[in-house]
Amino acid sequence: MIDFFLRHRRLAFFILLILLTALLRFSGFFSFFSFPAFPVKIAGVAGDFTDWIISAPSQIFGLGQSSAGKDSLRIEASRLKITELECFNIRKENDRLKELLDIPLEEELKPIGAKVLMGGISSFSRSIFVNRGTADGVEAGSPVLFEDKVAGKIIKAGRHVSLVYLVNHPEISVDVIVARTGTRGVFTGGAVCKVKYVDSEQEIVSGDELYSSGKGGVFPQRFRVGIVDSVASQKTGVFQKVTATPVIDPRKLDFVFIVKSPGLSEIKDMAQE
Question: Closest Cα partner for 191 from 125, 240, 260?
Fold first, then answer.
């Protein structure tokens, strides 16, 4: 035993100090002082000293390990923050996709989700680019939907990127019906969007909502297209002059769905014959 303490003098010194402090603290030694508060203060100091004596070995010998451990904890905390941010972004994107999926798509339309790569910076923008192409089954003429709205149509399809003309583009037209009355017309894009071929005897007023009729051979039915702005009956004409505003806002397009109606290819083939 003596040999052990001789070899471990530092440890023996610490043990001796601990025993001495404990003996002084609990033997009533401090009660000999006449000042009432003095024993309490001394006992507090002795207690703090005892705690330091007890923790000193681990603080001294574990200093290197503690520093390395702190670095490891900081790295792990940073990694967790990055992971948390990634998870937040994934959850946000998934929520957005779930929201977009909650639209009246028919099974035979075979929707293809696409991300908008380049879009307009104003409400007057007329085209966008999406990250889907012929490699994904996309072809020119395919309708493009956004939420419960008609967004536009594929004009050019590359292998992995496609050009979409929006419904406010002059070259895009959509066969529509008035939701309130069932009156049919053709929504056409341009600087001022119009609803053409509305019979003068049919009822249509400002504020009427326009939905795709599904009769044009391209766009599926029951998707929102626009809202009527003004109506002017022509005294000598067969059709009314109707202007409308598209319901889509090009600035808000982030994810869209490209759909392919089973009959689209057949209609295109027949039209070419």
Answer: 125
The per-residue pLDDT for range 80-132, each reduced to its tens digit, is 654 665 577 677 767 767 676 665 555 556 788 888 988 766 777 889 999 99
pLDDT of residue 260: 75
Q: What is the dihedral of CA 36, 42, 44, 50, to 10 degrees?
A: -150
Task: Please tell me the distance from the alpha carbon of residue 66 to that of residue 70, in angstroms, as a whole number.
Answer: 6
**C-alpha closest to that of 29 among 21, 208, 3:** 21
Query: What residues have CB less than 8 Å from 36, skipping those under 6 apart?
Result: none
Q: What domain count does the chain have?
A: 2
- pLDDT of 205-229, one tens digit each? 999 999 998 887 788 888 899 999 9
Whether the Cβ atoms of residue 166 and residue 250 lie closer than 8 Å to each other: yes
For residue 101, tell me if it sits in a domain: no
Vertex 253, ends 248 and 256: CA angle to 5°?
100
The answer to whether position 89 is within a domain reads no
pLDDT of residue 152: 94
Give pLDDT tens digits for 43-76.
454 455 555 555 555 554 455 556 666 666 755 6
CATH classification at residue 185: 2.40.10.340
Quote the domain boundaries for residue 117: 107-261
Separation of alpha carbons 253 and 129, rounded Å: 11
